[in-house]
Design goal:
heterodimer; A: alpha+beta; Rossmann fold; OB fold (Dihydrolipoamide Acetyltransferase, E2P); 2 domains; 6-stranded mixed beta sheet; 21 strands; disordered N terminus; B: mainly alpha; MetI-like fold; about 75% helix; globular; disordered C terminus
C-alpha cells in the first residue's frame, strides 16, 4: 500500500479506528467508538458486556449492523459503502480465550499455519525467529496436549504474530496462568511489540491487570464505552458510578512517596491536598516519586473511637460529610484531608449511630491500598 | 456358493461408497455449516430413505429412471441403453438409499469440530477449502470413516430396492441378498445359510474395524500436508 512510506509524516495512519453498532438482542446492543494506537489498549469490563463481540466484529467473525472499521488507512468494514473484508483477508492476529491451537498439529505446524504461502526458506526463517522470541524452539515436535499452559499460550501468540499482523486481538489470553508465568510472557510480547509497534487490544475483566499493563484503558459495560484514556485518566475520571463499579475502586488518590521500608515491604505515601499519610504495599517507586493509590469503598473500616490493638496500619480521624442510602448499601463521604467514600451495611451504620458532621476514625489495611504504577510516558 | 453374486455385491458396495465419499462430504459439510433457514427441508430429504419402505423408494427410482422420464431419456441417448435392470441403475438407486448412512455420521463429525478452530484458521488467512481439508476433515475423520463403513455395510445387505430397480439378473444385478432369497425360494436352506453367513461375517468384520479405528483414528491418518 502506498501509505506505508508516509508513516512518519502521518503517524495517525498506524492505528485502528472503530465505530460500530451491533444489536445482540432487543434490549442489548454493542455501540462502540474508539481508536487504538500502537501499544496495549486494555478493554476492561464485566463478562457479557460486549468485549468479545467487539473483538469478533473487528476480526470479521461477526458482522456489525452499522458502522465503520479502519485499520492503517485500510477499510475493513463500512456499512454505507457495503465493504466487509472477510476474516481471512483482514491480516490481523487473534488469540482466543481458549487459544484454539490445532490439536492434531505440532507446535511447528501450528505456528507455520498462517505463512504457508511464503517461500520455504523465508517461512523457515520467520518461524525460527518467532519460536526463539517466544522461547518455544525446543517444543516444535510436540502437540498442544503435550505442553504446559504457559507454553500453549506462547505457541498461540507466536502463531498469531508470525503472520506480521497489523493488529493483535487478545481475548483474556492469560486468564488461566499464574502471575509469574503471565508477566514473563507479557514481557516477551512487549519486547516483540517494541520492534513492530502494532496496536494490541487486550480484553480483561481484571482492573488490576488493565491499569498496570495498559497504555490505554477502554471501559466497556452493557455494550457501551464508559471511559477511554490513559490508566490515570480513567481512574481519575468523574465518579460515574458504573465506572467505579467496573473499575472496582471508588477511592483514587494522587500521592507522593515519602519513605520506603523495604524490609517490611511497605512504603509511606502522602496524599495530595492534605497531611494524610497511608502505608501501602511496596511498589516499583522511589522516595519522592508520584503514585496513585486506589481503595475500594467496602474495604474501609469506620470506628466511633480511636481504635487500638489492630493489625491495620492506617488509622486516622475524619468527619462525616454526607450520608445516603442506595439499596442495601449506606454510602458515607468522609473528609479527612482527602475525601473518602466508604460503604457500610445498614446494620453497621445503625450500630455506629452515625450522622453528618460526626467525628469518626477510618481504618485501612495496608493490603487494601492498591498501587497503580505510573508509566514514564504517562502525562500526569 | 454363488461367487458371482458375492463379487457383484462387493463391487456394488465399493462403487457406491466411492460415490458417497465424493457426494456425501460436500452435502454433510453444507448441512453442518450452512445457516440457511430452510436447511431442514434438505435434512429431511436426505433422511427420507431411513424411514421409507425400500419398495416405495425403489418404485420411484424405477419411475424416475424409466424411458418416460427426462432422466431416463437423457441416459438412454447418452449411453445407448436404459438404466433399469442394469448395474448402473443399481448403483444410482443404492447411492440414494444409502445416502443418509453416509451423510449423517459425517454431519455429526463436522458439527463437533470446535468453531474456534475454524475461526482461528480463517483469521490465519486460510480459505474455506484449506480450512476444511487441514482442520475440519482431520478432526472429524471418525465421522467420515463411520459414514463410509455404514453405507458400505448397508449397501451389501440391501434387498428391496435392488429387487425393484435391478431385478434378478445373474452377474448384472443379482446381489447376495437376492441370491439368498432365491435359495430360500428353492428350499435350498444350506445354500442360503452359506451366503447369509458370509454376509453376516463380512458385516461384523467391517463394523469391528470401524469401531476399532475410531478409538484411535490418528494411528492411521497421515498427519503431514
Amino acid at each position: 500500500m502506498a501509505v506505508e512510506h508516509s508513516d512518519d509524516a502521518h503517524p495517525s495512519i498506524r492505528n485502528l479506528s472503530v465505530r460500530i453498532v451491533r444489536r445482540l438482542s432487543n434490549s442489548f446492543a454493542l455501540d462502540a467508538k474508539f481508536d487504538a494506537t500502537p501499544g496495549f489498549t486494555m478493554l476492561l469490563g464485566p463478562s457479557g458486556g460486549g468485549k468479545t463481540t467487539l473483538l469478533n466484529c473487528i476480526a470479521g467473525l461477526e458482522r456489525p449492523d452499522a458502522g465503520r472499521i479502519v485499520l492503517n488507512a485500510r477499510v475493513l468494514f463500512d456499512s454505507t459503502s457495503r465493504i466487509d473484508v472477510p476474516a481471512s483477508r483482514r491480516a490481523l492476529g487473534y488469540v482466543f480465550q481458549n487459544l484454539a491451537l490445532f490439536p492434531h498439529l505440532t507446535v511447528e505446524q501450528n505456528v507455520e499455519y498462517g505463512i504457508v504461502n511464503l517461500p520455504a526458506r523465508e517461512r523457515r526463517e520467520r518461524m525460527m525467529t518467532m519460536l526463539e522470541s517466544f522461547r518455544i524452539s525446543h517444543l516444535i515436535c510436540r502437540r498442544p496436549s503435550e505442553i504446559s499452559g504457559g507454553e500453549r499460550q506462547r505457541t498461540a501468540l507466536a502463531r498469531a504474530l508470525v503472520t506480521s499482523p497489523a493488529l493483535l486481538l487478545l481475548d483474556e489470553p492469560l486468564v488461566a496462568l499464574d502471575a509469574a508465568t503471565k508477566s514473563k510472557i507479557l514481557d516477551d510480547l512487549r519486547i516483540w511489540n517494541a520492534a513492530h509497534e502494532i496496536p494490541i487490544l487486550y480484553v480483561t475483566h481484571s482492573p488490576a491487570e488493565a491499569f498496570t499493563l495498559g497504555e490505554r484503558v477502554v471501559v466497556i459495560e452493557s455494550g457501551r464505552i464508559l471511559a477511554d484514556g490513559t490508566p490515570n485518566d480513567v481512574l481519575a475520571s468523574p465518579r460515574h458510578e458504573t465506572i467505579a463499579q467496573v473499575v472496582g475502586f471508588e477511592n483514587v488518590f494522587d500521592a507522593t512517596v515519602r519513605s520506603i521500608a523495604e524490609s517490611r515491604g511497605t512504603m509511606l505515601c502522602q496524599l495530595d491536598g492534605g497531611a494524610t499519610e497511608l502505608e501501602v504495599p511496596l511498589g516499583r517507586a522511589e522516595t519522592g516519586s508520584r503514585v496513585r493509590v486506589a481503595i475500594r469503598a467496602g474495604d474501609i473500616i469506620v470506628a466511633a473511637e480511636r481504635p487500638h490493638g489492630l493489625s491495620a496500619r492506617n488509622a486516622f480521624q475524619g468527619r462525616v460529610e454526607s450520608v445516603r442510602r442506595e439499596g442495601v448499601t449506606v454510602i458515607l463521604m468522609i473528609e479527612s484531608g482527602a475525601r473518602f467514600e466508604v460503604h457500610l451495611t445498614p446494620g453497621a451504620f445503625a450500630d455506629l449511630n452515625l450522622s453528618a458532621g460526626k467525628q469518626i476514625w477510618l481504618v485501612i489495611k495496608t493490603y487494601s491500598c492498591n498501587l497503580v504504577e505510573r508509566r514514564k510516558d504517562d502525562s500526569i | 456358493m454363488d461367487w458371482g453374486a458375492i463379487f457383484l455385491t462387493v463391487r456394488l458396495a465399493m462403487v457406491v461408497c466411492a460415490i458417497l465419499l465424493v457426494l456425501g462430504i460436500p452435502i454433510a459439510s453444507w448441512l453442518s455449516f450452512s445457516r440457511w433457514r430452510w436447511k431442514f427441508f434438505v435434512e429431511s430429504v436426505v433422511a427420507l430413505p431411513l424411514v421409507l419402505p425400500p419398495t416405495v423408494l425403489g418404485f420411484y427410482v424405477l419411475v424416475a429412471m424409466g424411458s418416460n422420464s427426462p432422466l431416463g431419456r437423457w441416459y438412454q441417448s447418452w449411453s445407448g441403453h436404459g438404466l433399469p435392470f442394469t448395474f448402473e441403475g443399481l448403483v444410482l438407486a443404492s447411492v440414494i438409499y444409502s445416502l443418509p448412512f453416509a451423510v449423517q455420521p459425517m454431519t455429526a463429525g463436522f458439527a463437533q469440530v470446535d468453531r474456534n478452530l475454524i475461526n482461528a484458521s480463517s483469521i490465519l488467512g486460510a480459505s474455506r477449502i484449506r480450512t476444511f481439508f487441514r482442520i475440519v476433515l482431520p478432526l472429524s475423520l471418525g465421522g467420515v470413516v463411520t459414514g463410509i463403513v455404514l453405507s458400505f455395510a448397508h449397501t451389501l445387505g440391501e434387498f428391496g430396492v435392488v429387487l425393484m430397480v435391478g431385478g434378478n439378473i445373474p452377474g448384472v444385478t443379482r446381489t447376495v441378498s437376492i441370491a439368498i432369497y432365491d435359495h430360500v425360494q428353492a428350499l435350498d436352506y444350506a445354500g442360503a445359510n452359506r451366503m447369509a453367513l458370509v454376509l453376516m461375517a463380512f458385516s461384523f468384520v467391517t463394523l469391528s474395524i470401524t469401531y476399532a479405528l475410531n478409538r484411535r483414528v490418528w494411528a492411521v491418518w497421515p498427519l503431514h500436508r
